[in-house]
Design brief:
Layout (H helix, E strand, L loop, with lengths): L6 E5 L4 H12 L3 E6 L2 H7 L7 E5 L6 H7 L4 E6 L14 H29 L3 E6 L12 H21 L4 E8 L8 H4 L2 H10 L8 H12 L10 E4 L7
Parallel strand pairs: 1-2, 1-4, 2-3, 4-5, 5-6, 6-7
């Protein structure tokens, strides 16, 4: 894959899927701006051997970040990856958790995408937006009412953006992974009963790896996907086929 000349923004790039996406885009030739809150994570990411990763320490829920994104010269790829989850029984969801997850997974995702699209429209060269959704954007699951709600919102946003922006040359898609062992999911998967439940729900019989998700992102931003927009690419080992 050759992404020479592309300028990519990746949020939530300090660890896990976001970090791997930033590195893979740089390996493919793109100039990458990696956004994360952790300066220590970003410091090691900036040492990537490609020399094509610039880092921004920032919080995607901070409104000041959006004007910075709008000013990115030549922006052509957004991987809208920042997100979080706080599993709780539905009857016990507290308003602080509800507001925090909605604020990050929905409000911030919308405003990051809006700022990135404004930058793309400013330079009139089209582009590709990939929202990091989840299999939980297609199904329900216990203790994940808030997370499922937010990812269903991301799926709706993906479709609406795709329809509106296609005439302007901007493609918008989502990647919907099953469980991947990352710093976000590791505490959940350390529970043997929960891990057994997860593995029993995946017909492929295993968790996804970060590379599986990166491959989907790279495909969607590539010229090979030029007719793909409004799509949610489920990398779930068959979970949602039940």
């Amino acid at each position: 894959m050759n992404l020479q000349g592309e300028v990519a923004l990746v949020t939530g790039a300090g660890r896990g899927i976001g970090r791997s996406c930033a590195e893979a885009l740089a390996d493919a030739g793109a100039s990458v701006i990696a956004v994360a809150r952790s300066e220590s994570d970003l410091a090691t990411l900036a040492e990537h051997p490609s020399g094509r990763i610039a880092t921004w320490a920032g919080d995607v829920t901070d409104d000041a970040l959006y004007s910075q994104i709008e000013r990115i010269e030549g922006l052509s790829i957004l991987v809208n990856n920042a997100g979080a989850n706080r599993p709780q029984p539905f009857a016990e969801v507290d308003t602080e958790s509800l507001d925090a997850i909605l604020g990050l997974n929905v409000r911030a995702a919308f405003l990051v995408a809006q700022a990135a699209v404004r930058a793309m429209l400013e330079h009139n060269r089209g582009g590709s937006v990939v929202h990091m959704s989840s299999q939980m954007g297609h199904v329900g699951s216990p203790r994940r009412s808030v997370y499922c709600m937010t990812k269903h919102a991301v799926e709706g946003l993906t479709k609406a953006m795709a329809v509106e922006l296609a005439p302007r040359g901007i493609r918008v898609n989502a990647v919907a992974p099953t469980f991947v062992e990352t710093p976000l999911t590791k505490p959940m998967l350390d529970d043997p009963d929960f891990r057994q439940f997860v593995e029993s729900m995946i017909p492929a019989g295993r968790l996804a790896e970060t590379g599986d998700i990166v491959a989907a992102v790279l495909y969607l931003v590539s010229p090979g996907a030029r007719m793909v927009t409004g799509h949610s690419l489920r990398v779930d080992g068959g979970w949602t086929a039940h």
